[in-house]
Amino acid sequence: VEHGTLRTWVGVGGSPESVIRAARHGLPLMLAIIGGDPARFRPFVDLYHRALAEFGTGPQPVAQHSPGHIAETDDVAKEQVWPHYLQYVGRIGRERGWPPPTRESFEDAAGPEGALFVGSPETVAVKIARSARLLGLDRFSLKISQGALPHEHTMRAIELYGTEVAPRVRELLAEG
User: Is 3 left (phi over 0), alpha (psi -120 to 50) or beta?
Assistant: First the structure.
Protein backbone atom coordinates (compact mmCIF):
# COMPACT_ATOMS: atom_id res chain seq x y z
CA VAL A 1 0.00 0.00 0.00
CA GLU A 2 1.41 3.34 -1.00
CA HIS A 3 -0.16 6.60 0.22
CA GLY A 4 -3.36 4.75 1.08
CA THR A 5 -3.71 3.09 -2.32
CA LEU A 6 -2.64 -0.24 -3.68
CA ARG A 7 0.23 0.22 -6.15
CA THR A 8 1.03 -2.45 -8.73
CA TRP A 9 4.60 -2.63 -10.05
CA VAL A 10 5.78 -4.42 -13.16
CA GLY A 11 9.04 -6.27 -12.63
CA VAL A 12 11.40 -6.55 -15.60
CA GLY A 13 14.77 -8.19 -15.92
CA GLY A 14 16.19 -6.79 -19.10
CA SER A 15 13.67 -7.09 -21.93
CA PRO A 16 12.87 -3.90 -23.88
CA GLU A 17 9.43 -5.36 -24.62
CA SER A 18 8.57 -5.69 -20.95
CA VAL A 19 9.73 -2.12 -20.28
CA ILE A 20 7.51 -0.81 -23.08
CA ARG A 21 4.60 -2.95 -21.86
CA ALA A 22 4.86 -1.37 -18.39
CA ALA A 23 4.88 2.11 -19.94
CA ARG A 24 1.94 1.30 -22.24
CA HIS A 25 -0.16 0.43 -19.19
CA GLY A 26 1.13 3.40 -17.17
CA LEU A 27 2.57 1.15 -14.47
CA PRO A 28 5.62 1.80 -12.28
CA LEU A 29 8.77 -0.06 -13.29
CA MET A 30 10.65 -2.46 -10.98
CA LEU A 31 14.05 -3.46 -12.38
CA ALA A 32 14.99 -6.94 -11.14
CA ILE A 33 18.78 -6.66 -11.17
CA ILE A 34 20.44 -9.88 -10.08
CA GLY A 35 23.67 -9.78 -12.06
CA GLY A 36 26.20 -7.43 -13.60
CA ASP A 37 26.57 -3.72 -13.02
CA PRO A 38 23.23 -2.01 -12.32
CA ALA A 39 24.45 0.84 -14.57
CA ARG A 40 23.81 -1.38 -17.60
CA PHE A 41 20.06 -0.96 -16.92
CA ARG A 42 20.16 2.80 -17.61
CA PRO A 43 19.10 2.29 -21.26
CA PHE A 44 15.96 0.51 -20.01
CA VAL A 45 15.12 3.44 -17.73
CA ASP A 46 15.61 5.85 -20.63
CA LEU A 47 13.45 3.65 -22.88
CA TYR A 48 10.77 3.55 -20.18
CA HIS A 49 10.67 7.35 -19.88
CA ARG A 50 10.52 7.76 -23.68
CA ALA A 51 7.73 5.19 -23.92
CA LEU A 52 5.75 6.83 -21.11
CA ALA A 53 5.97 10.15 -22.97
CA GLU A 54 5.00 8.54 -26.27
CA PHE A 55 1.98 6.78 -24.74
CA GLY A 56 1.03 9.93 -22.80
CA THR A 57 0.67 7.96 -19.58
CA GLY A 58 2.58 10.46 -17.45
CA PRO A 59 5.58 10.00 -15.19
CA GLN A 60 5.80 6.84 -13.12
CA PRO A 61 8.26 5.71 -10.44
CA VAL A 62 11.25 3.48 -11.17
CA ALA A 63 12.58 1.00 -8.63
CA GLN A 64 15.32 -1.61 -8.32
CA HIS A 65 15.03 -5.01 -6.64
CA SER A 66 18.31 -6.82 -5.92
CA PRO A 67 19.56 -9.53 -3.57
CA GLY A 68 21.81 -8.75 -0.63
CA HIS A 69 22.81 -9.26 2.97
CA ILE A 70 24.02 -6.90 5.68
CA ALA A 71 26.20 -7.62 8.70
CA GLU A 72 28.58 -5.62 10.88
CA THR A 73 31.46 -5.91 8.40
CA ASP A 74 31.91 -6.77 4.74
CA ASP A 75 33.80 -9.97 5.62
CA VAL A 76 31.17 -11.16 8.09
CA ALA A 77 28.34 -10.48 5.63
CA LYS A 78 30.12 -12.39 2.85
CA GLU A 79 30.98 -15.34 5.08
CA GLN A 80 27.42 -15.56 6.39
CA VAL A 81 25.79 -15.52 2.97
CA TRP A 82 28.31 -17.30 0.70
CA PRO A 83 27.36 -20.95 1.39
CA HIS A 84 23.66 -20.17 1.02
CA TYR A 85 24.25 -18.08 -2.09
CA LEU A 86 26.27 -20.94 -3.61
CA GLN A 87 23.42 -23.38 -3.05
CA TYR A 88 20.58 -20.99 -3.97
CA VAL A 89 22.16 -19.46 -7.08
CA GLY A 90 23.57 -22.81 -8.10
CA ARG A 91 20.04 -24.28 -8.15
CA ILE A 92 18.60 -21.33 -10.08
CA GLY A 93 21.56 -21.46 -12.47
CA ARG A 94 20.96 -25.12 -13.26
CA GLU A 95 17.32 -24.30 -14.05
CA ARG A 96 18.31 -21.39 -16.30
CA GLY A 97 21.46 -22.82 -17.88
CA TRP A 98 23.95 -20.59 -16.03
CA PRO A 99 27.36 -21.83 -14.91
CA PRO A 100 27.65 -22.56 -11.19
CA PRO A 101 28.72 -19.60 -9.05
CA THR A 102 32.31 -19.45 -7.89
CA ARG A 103 33.75 -17.58 -4.94
CA GLU A 104 35.39 -15.24 -7.45
CA SER A 105 32.09 -14.51 -9.23
CA PHE A 106 30.44 -13.97 -5.83
CA GLU A 107 33.17 -11.50 -4.78
CA ASP A 108 32.78 -9.63 -8.09
CA ALA A 109 28.99 -9.46 -7.67
CA ALA A 110 29.45 -8.17 -4.11
CA GLY A 111 32.02 -5.61 -5.28
CA PRO A 112 31.34 -1.89 -5.80
CA GLU A 113 29.79 -2.30 -9.26
CA GLY A 114 28.07 -5.64 -8.78
CA ALA A 115 24.38 -6.39 -8.36
CA LEU A 116 24.79 -8.26 -5.06
CA PHE A 117 24.32 -5.82 -2.16
CA VAL A 118 26.35 -7.68 0.47
CA GLY A 119 28.47 -6.00 3.14
CA SER A 120 28.52 -3.64 6.06
CA PRO A 121 25.80 -0.99 6.37
CA GLU A 122 28.13 1.61 4.83
CA THR A 123 29.08 -0.62 1.90
CA VAL A 124 25.46 -1.46 1.12
CA ALA A 125 24.33 2.15 1.53
CA VAL A 126 27.01 3.42 -0.87
CA LYS A 127 26.00 0.79 -3.45
CA ILE A 128 22.30 1.65 -3.14
CA ALA A 129 23.02 5.39 -3.46
CA ARG A 130 25.14 4.67 -6.55
CA SER A 131 22.28 2.74 -8.18
CA ALA A 132 19.74 5.39 -7.20
CA ARG A 133 21.83 8.10 -8.86
CA LEU A 134 22.71 6.08 -11.97
CA LEU A 135 19.17 4.88 -12.61
CA GLY A 136 17.14 7.78 -11.18
CA LEU A 137 15.42 5.44 -8.72
CA ASP A 138 12.41 6.35 -6.66
CA ARG A 139 12.64 3.17 -4.59
CA PHE A 140 15.07 0.35 -3.82
CA SER A 141 13.97 -3.10 -2.65
CA LEU A 142 16.53 -5.45 -1.07
CA LYS A 143 15.88 -9.20 -1.17
CA ILE A 144 17.55 -10.15 2.11
CA SER A 145 16.62 -13.82 2.42
CA GLN A 146 19.28 -15.94 0.69
CA GLY A 147 18.31 -19.61 0.57
CA ALA A 148 18.63 -21.23 3.99
CA LEU A 149 20.38 -18.29 5.66
CA PRO A 150 19.86 -18.67 9.44
CA HIS A 151 16.92 -16.69 10.79
CA GLU A 152 19.06 -14.65 13.21
CA HIS A 153 21.28 -13.43 10.33
CA THR A 154 18.21 -12.47 8.30
CA MET A 155 16.68 -10.60 11.24
CA ARG A 156 19.94 -8.75 11.95
CA ALA A 157 20.21 -7.77 8.27
CA ILE A 158 16.66 -6.39 8.36
CA GLU A 159 17.47 -4.43 11.52
CA LEU A 160 20.65 -2.96 9.99
CA TYR A 161 18.79 -2.12 6.77
CA GLY A 162 16.20 -0.06 8.65
CA THR A 163 18.37 1.52 11.32
CA GLU A 164 21.65 2.18 9.48
CA VAL A 165 21.43 1.59 5.73
CA ALA A 166 18.24 3.50 4.90
CA PRO A 167 19.19 6.64 6.87
CA ARG A 168 22.69 6.58 5.35
CA VAL A 169 21.29 6.26 1.81
CA ARG A 170 19.10 9.31 2.45
CA GLU A 171 22.19 11.23 3.67
CA LEU A 172 24.26 10.22 0.65
CA LEU A 173 21.51 11.20 -1.79
CA ALA A 174 20.96 14.52 -0.04
CA GLU A 175 24.69 15.28 -0.45
CA GLY A 176 24.27 14.98 -4.20
Answer: left
Cα separation of the two ends of the chain: 29
pLDDT in tens, 60-101: 999 999 999 999 999 999 999 999 999 988 888 899 898 999
What confidence tens digit (pLDDT) does each residue in 97-146 have? 989 999 999 999 999 999 999 999 999 999 999 999 999 999 999 999 77
pTM for this entry: 0.91
- Taking the C-alpha atoms of residue 168 and residue 124, their distance in angstroms, rounded to an integer, is 9
CA distance 110 to 107: 5
Res 146: pLDDT: 74
Beta bridge partners of 29: 10, 62
Bridge partners, residue 141, by sequence? 65
Element at 143 (helix H, strand E): strand 139-143
Exposed/middle/buried for residue 3 (C-beta within 10 Å: 0-12, 13-18, 19+): exposed
DSSP character string of 69-126: EE-SSHHHHHHHHHHHHHHHHHHHHHHHTPPPP-HHHHHHHHSTTSS-EEE-HHHHHH
